[in-house]
Design goal:
homodimer; seven-stranded mixed sheet; alpha+beta; BirA Bifunctional Protein, domain 2; five-stranded mixed sheet; 31% helix; 441 residues
Chain lengths: 441, 441
């Protein structure tokens, strides 16, 4: 399989309407991206797939959706106000600011070095909080300061009791959420890999203490299988254990699923953490109330442990698109295609009259009207049929339906399959059931 | 039909897991709400329904998804920095702040009155901007100030050219988006009706100038039909024309669809505005580039006019829930039910073994495994079957499937329909197709 180089890939994303720079006509804004007509469909399909796997198909997980702005006490309790920070240094002469990590081994906190931009002297390293802050109400100041959430997870922890009560759950059970989060990254980059605004899919799975290590292993396996089930090739994925030094303040053990990106290294696409009882206990203390589960077997109130599979939609988007990218030679010409799994493809069916001949328009519109209510469909009648097939290949459309002059005689159409390019003749009356069989869900 | 009083309704929403106060364990935060396990499903179903109607089923509309934080020049061009503000007065003695509008006729800009809280003297009225601001990058200050979008619409305008180019569209065509927006409202209220963080569904429909008034009328009709198609009763909806005084700065004509809420008045649930060419022209000027459409017929570059149907997901959620609420007397007992349209119901099917008898568990789990991959399903075996039916009625579940001792003999189950309470016996092998017929989509 081919991995595209990043430039080719970013250009395809823009040219075909997957991803645009945010506010591009104003020169953009670093770390923020927009999803175009095809991008939003792919993104929605990824989210739907995750929700189906994590919520609909499971007995033991429910969803929620919480606000991005929360009571700021949440971030005191979670530790984000104190510890969610990167060490930074400033240049005393050109005033540029850098992540200390990026300058290593040039600079460290004890021995500041010289500015890579101008050679000036650097300040000592200081902590810079990654949360965006804003103000609620008419007065700006400390009393009205709130934050844009840097993770969706706290929405689940503060609703632990609400969910427990309203759904009458027993341990183990999970709470899942999909939603935007914000981190004021100093060095966003690698296209949509590290953004300042991004979308997360997180699930907090509450278990009896003592069963946490076993559940952690089960979730690592389960999540790895989810990725390969999406069609991502096994040899491009790996599992990496966090070292003691890189563990988050709340974590007993964290494992990353990493993908071999074309920008040069295996990088995290999902983290599965054992958050222990850290968050619930912190909220108990800061909110001054108990957040416990009554265990009938032991007749005790206990604070559950938490296993958290957490991933970014944008990184998943990048991964599945890159992994689906392929170049082939077909009859001496290069064919670019996205071998996206059917359920993720933005457009499922392209309806393609052989030409703009006026006799072909009525049956083509009739086919469109049949197919569109069932599947995301695109109608395309511009340029030669060969070019239109290539256009659909390049955006990953699994099936093209061609209406030709024979259709006028036999009331049948041709289905062309993206990967094999095989063509099958099907009566119009059977078209939807035949497509439905090959496009479940 | 019954309309619930707001207290009863808010309490149902909390008790059954539709809506919780955000950060409730910390005393909440005004104007921010969370959606519980049932709420998030209903919200997703509303969004899916809108997307299907506005994007999937139409030839002339595509979707996008843009970032919440945009280049701040966008809000200079759109007029939001200058004009998106409410007039406010402060009390000189107790320092409380009020919307000038709320104090009328007590106070106006020319003749400030006395504070309603302490009787102190009020300042003159000043404008207070409703956009939340934050800072990007490590330095806080004017140069790094950005805003949380107060509407999704500008995401479409700044991407007009990107969408036009990548989708090769002809006028008229539309760009649709669903996403969160933020307004620093001084007086949020009426439950989730007026929030500081909310979700919008907006569509910008670009048309040839001169055809805008006709398209405006078509969209008003189309959108009204969407609401009644959702099952909202016609006599609880009305269409109201904006007066000249209340028109937004960009609007030539705006029409609201209003719902008769139990908090005492018809209030806006959707606005359909003729935004003219205001936004595109402003962006042309501020970005210093043309944002035009080449019209082949007249051989001219033109700036399209825009018709915008814009609504809030949260208000739609409130409307459909209130409108679906019903109380009935059944055999001398009160039955509370939500007559939600099937496509919006959070749970489609409840699987209910008659009791926890161990003989019933295996067939009940077998039925669950059949149904769950097809529909959002809930398994409930706690308490009497009568109470479980009532629980499902109260959350709007269209179908209950009961597994009883006869099932052990005849491999059949009983389907109970929510509204009529009619029961039908169906073989397990036919269950999914029978449900599928009554739960399309």
């Amino acid at each position: 399989m081919t991995q595209p180089n990043m430039d080719t890939f970013v250009s395809l994303c823009k040219r075909r309407g997957f991803v645009f720079q945010s506010s591009e006509i104003y020169g953009g804004i670093g770390g923020f991206w927009d999803y175009g007509p095809l991008g939003v469909e792919l993104k929605n399909n990824i989210k739907r797939n995750w929700w189906r796997a994590m919520v609909q198909l499971r007995d033991d997980v429910v969803g929620i959706e919480t606000s991005i702005v929360m009571n700021p006490r949440v971030w005191e309790a979670s530790g984000h106000i104190q510890t969610f920070a990167d060490p930074m240094v400033d240049c005393k002469s050109c005033k540029h600011r850098f992540r200390t990590d990026d300058l290593l081994p040039v600079a460290d906190a004890s021995a500041p070095g010289r500015c890579p931009d101008c050679g000036g002297e650097l300040t000592e390293s200081r902590m810079f909080n990654l949360m965006f802050k804003t103000f609620v109400g008419p007065v700006e100041g400390d009393a009205s300061t709130v934050y844009l959430r840097p993770e969706t997870a706290q929405g689940m922890f503060v609703n632990f009791e609400n969910v427990l009560t309203t759904t009458r759950r027993k341990l183990p059970f999970g709470i899942a959420q999909i939603g935007r989060s914000f981190r004021n990254e100093i060095t966003p980059g690698n296209f949509i890999f590290r953004d300042r605004e991004f979308e997360q899919m997180e699930m907090e799975f509450f278990v009896m203490p003592g069963t946490d290590e076993e559940w952690h292993d089960r979730w690592i396996e389960d999540r790895f299988n989810w990725w390969t089930g999406l069609g991502v090739r096994k040899d491009t994925l790996r599992i990496r254990e966090h070292t003691k030094e890189e563990l988050s303040h709340y974590s007993k053990r964290t494992v990353d699923i990493e993908y071999d990106f074309p920008f040069g290294c295996f990088s995290e696409v999902e983290g599965i953490a054992n958050r222990t009882d850290f968050d619930l206990k912190q909220h108990e203390q800061f909110a001054g109330r108990t957040l416990r589960y009554f265990d009938e077997a032991s007749n005790q109130q206990i604070v559950p442990y938490v296993i958290e599979p957490a991933m970014g939609v944008d990184r998943c988007f990048l991964t599945v698109l890159i992994d689906a990218y392929a170049e082939e030679e077909v009859r001496g010409e290069k064919r670019v295609l996205l071998r996206l799994p059917h359920e993720l493809a933005p457009i499922k069916v392209a309806v393609l009259p052989l030409s703009r001949n006026e006799q072909l328009v009525p049956p083509a519109r009739r086919v469109l009207d049949l197919v569109r209510p069932q599947f995301m469909t695109q109608y395309d009648d511009a340029q030669s049929i060969g070019r239109r097939y290539r256009r659909q290949d390049e955006i990953g459309t699994p099936f093209g339906v061609t209406i030709d002059f024979e259709t006028l005689e036999d009331e049948a159409v041709t289905i062309r399959e993206r990967d094999s390019m095989e063509q099958t003749r099907v009566p119009i009356t059977k078209l939807v059931p035949v497509l439905r069989e090959r496009l479940p869900g």
